[in-house]
Design a protein that fits this description.
Helices cover 27% and strands 17% of the residues. It is of the alpha/beta class and 732 residues long. A seven-stranded mixed β-sheet has the order 5-4-17-16-15-6-7, covered by helices on one side. The protein has a six-stranded mixed β-barrel with strand order 25-29-26-28-27-30. Strands 10-9-8-12 form a four-stranded parallel β-sheet.
């Protein structure tokens, strides 16, 4: 028996943690964090340490499968599946045109650097505009807000150099997303607190990160816009803002000032249920700090007016002048991405919405967040010209992840052709015509490039330093298997359809200026993953060959770049008074707000259900591991002890949770970190059954409580997926 250790990169989520893998006879048997890595410092999560068990999971697909008319799946060779899919797609395209083929890119497509660029190249080749991503049911408001407000060429201040930060509805210690860099967030927060850092958290739940905060505001759900407007009002009225920065780099100050005046501390107290003194302190601490920004999480985006919350968080950054200024050093001047053109000025603003593809449903168009998933089921079900007839589901699980689960299932079953790329038969894969089986993390080389690109997606994301890592293949695919990387599916499909592929070598949200020309791929001689990596990093500051010299990863700090001065003729300004946002603030102020929730309320739906993440569950993955889920194999309904006492409920009781649109069953769990009147459940998790007998085994999906047609954002399309009014009854 031979034993050795290898360095790997986890791709179970977007954090891309660096790992040390214990091998026996060429097979991974144990995983821990790599203590020699300069940014992860030995961090790994419980999910990542289960990678060996994922690779040898009994339900893993080792061959692609094809569904017969009776619904049974049988193995099919990948090349045969590709040829059959190509023929059916060609027939549909010839008959109905490019719009009949849609693609949905799920969460698991992100960690693999080659997947999205090759998928995009294929959709370009067939000229289909119907491209949907999980962004429009996760944090769509972030992209819209950045487009409305504008971005800063030099970038924002970073967490490790700040003395305060405002986190709204985000819990990066669990989600590894939002505010604290996802490379060992607990360590970064610990070091920050040691130097006197003041973290401010706004969340209806005392989350793991809220417990470590200097100040935690625990409001009624859905009141984030009111709270942020109140903070802005305090900062302006007390002249705590950076007046010089605003005057020289922003527009819309007077309109903003007028719009937030009604959001006084006493009004916010009455509306949000937080003490007025807390609001004052939060505003004063944030504005008086030397450095620090804001980050908004998934929960506020899933609640009504998530885009307003995201926009106001950008306004707070600009009001306090927290963008990098002339003469400051650039924290991350690029590693495998091109060097940042760091100037102390705003970038030109592009359109936020109302351009590109015009959908047939509810007046939606393309937008900065992408085409809304809200429209896709109806685009499949609605007859007539432009109907979507084929769907390529790239590493996603729509049945589990999308809201309005019943309509989602109906739409997927109505497709003429449905292809899913997944490592197991998920709830969605079971409805597909073909399921293409991919390689997993340890069976393919890894690159930290996707995480590096996140620094352009929003403030507080990506690496705050010029870090890069490459890892080779750790172990071979199982004997007798027929597995591919997702990019190979699109390459083979294009070759079988006699289509050219032009690879865009940079991520669309992080395009440098000038934009590099796409690379035409050789469709006769298939490239390797390594060759694609070379193409994608060719414009990078650090050559891939140099990155490969550092197996544990490396921070390429030399040379240090300095923020250049603003161009003398630069006309660009950040917009802190966007009319579409200020109009919604007026609507918020005019509406009748709920002064009580829970058992104190007389409303028909007295409770509010909010989304959450759990540290041992990867939302929408569905396939959980017994070692991780021995306590919660299901999706608990976390409630405050006071509510349970008044409802005469106990832990482990079964309850029915009903919204205006549907009902689910839940297993009660006591949680004193949840605000009274609130039910907290994981989103994108739970099976397709709502059976009382199965709820303790598979949980319930909160998507059943939402509908695409009701209470949705008119721009992003996201339905009300959090802060959902619900009522409760005990189930015997």
């Amino acid at each position: 028996m031979s034993s050795q250790q290898k360095i790997a990169m986890c791709r179970f989520c977007h954090a891309l943690c660096s790992l040390k893998v214990q091998m026996q006879d060429g097979v991974a048997v144990n995983v821990v964090g790599d203590k020699h890595n300069p940014v992860y410092h030995g961090y790994s999560c419980a999910k990542g340490r289960e990678l060996p068990n994922q690779h040898r999971h009994p339900d893993r697909l080792l061959h692609s499968v094809k569904r017969a008319k009776d619904g049974a799946f049988a193995p099919v060779a990948f090349e045969r599946a590709s040829a059959e899919i190509a023929a059916r797609l060609r027939e549909l395209l010839d008959r109905y045109g490019p719009r009949c083929v849609a693609m949905y890119s799920g969460t698991h497509s992100f960690p693999y650097a080659t997947t999205q660029p090759m998928a995009t190249a294929f959709m370009d080749a067939i000229a289909s505009p119907m491209r949907f991503t999980s962004n429009t049911i996760d944090k769509p408001g972030k992209s819209i807000a950045m487009a409305l407000h504008g971005t800063w060429a030099a970038g924002a201040q970073v967490f490790d150099r700040s003395d305060t930060w405002l986190m709204v509805g985000t819990n990066p210690l669990i989600s590894k997303s939002g505010g604290i860099p996802n490379s060992n967030p607990a360590r970064r927060l610990h070091l920050a607190n040691k130097r006197g850092f003041k973290l401010i958290v706004i969340d209806p739940r005392r989350t793991e990160v809220a417990k470590k905060a200097y100040l935690h505001l625990q409001p009624r759900p859905g009141e984030d816009p009111s709270i942020l407007a109140g903070m802005i009002n305090v900062i302006i009225s007390e002249s705590l803002h950076d007046a010089d920065f605003v005057q020289n780099n922003a527009e819309g100050f007077e309109q903003l000032q007028e719009a937030v005046k009604p959001f006084t501390p006493s009004y916010v107290e009455a509306r949000a249920g937080i003490p007025a003194q807390q609001l004052l302190e939060a505003a004063q601490v944030f504005a008086s700090a030397k450095g620090g920004c804001t980050t908004v999480g998934t929960g506020p985006n899933m609640a009504p007016r998530g885009m307003v919350t995201e926009y106001l968080s950008q306004v707070l950054i600009t009001l306090c002048g927290r963008w990098l200024k002339e003469g400051e050093s650039v924290p991350n001047n690029g590693a495998m991405m091109p060097r940042r053109n760091a100037k102390a000025q705003a970038n030109p603003r592009g359109p936020a919405f109302g351009y590109g593809e015009k959908l047939r449903v509810r007046g939606f168009t393309d937008a900065a967040c992408g085409l809304p998933i809200n429209a896709l089921p109806d685009e499949i079900l609605m007859p007539g010209e432009g109907k979507v007839r084929a769907l390529i589901n790239l590493c996603g699980n729509p049945v589990s992840a999308w809201p309005d689960q019943e309509k989602t299932k109906e739409a997927l079953q109505a497709l003429d052709l449905h292809i899913t790329l997944d490592w197991r038969l998920s709830e969605t894969a079971r409805l597909a015509d073909y399921v293409i089986a991919p390689k997993l993390s340890l069976e393919r080389p890894g690159l930290s490039l996707p995480n590096e690109s996140l620094s352009f997606m929003g403030v507080g994301f990506g690496y705050p330093e010029p870090y890069a890592q490459y890892v080779p293949v750790v172990q071979s695919t199982p004997p007798g298997s027929d597995l591919i990387e997702e990019w190979e599916f699109f390459y083979h499909l294009a070759r079988d359809m006699a289509l050219p592929l032009n690879l865009q070598t940079c991520y669309p949200w992080a395009v440098p200026d000038p934009k590099p020309d796409p690379v035409s791929l050789d469709m006769e001689n298939k490239p390797t993953t390594e060759e694609l990596y070379e193409l994608m990093t060719a414009q990078g500051r650090i050559p891939l060959a140099e990155v490969k010299k550092h197996p544990h990863g490396f921070v390429f700090t030399e040379p240090t770049d300095i923020v250049a001065p603003k161009d003398k003729d630069c006309p660009n300004r950040l917009d802190i008074g966007a009319s579409v946002v200020l109009e919604q603030l007026g609507e918020i102020r005019a509406e009748t707000f709920v002064s009580a929730i829970g058992t104190d309320s007389q409303a028909s739906y007295p409770f509010r259900l909010i989304s959450r993440r759990m540290d041992r569950i990867y939302n929408s993955n569905g396939m959980q591991f017994e070692k991780l889920t021995h306590r919660y194999p299901y999706n608990p309904a976390f409630m405050h002890p006071r509510d349970l006492q008044e409802l005469q409920l106990s832990a482990s009781d079964i309850i029915e949770i009903a919204s205006a649109y549907g009902s689910i069953l839940g297993v009660v769990e006591v949680d004193d970190t949840v605000r009274p009147g609130v039910i907290s459940m994981a989103h994108c998790f739970g099976g397709i059954s709502n059976d009382e007998r199965q709820v303790r085994d598979i949980g319930s999906n909160t998507g059943i409580l939402a509908q695409f047609e009701s209470e949705y954002d008119p721009i992003t399309g996201i339905p009300r997926m959090s802060d959902i009014p619900v009522k409760i009854r005990a189930v015997a």
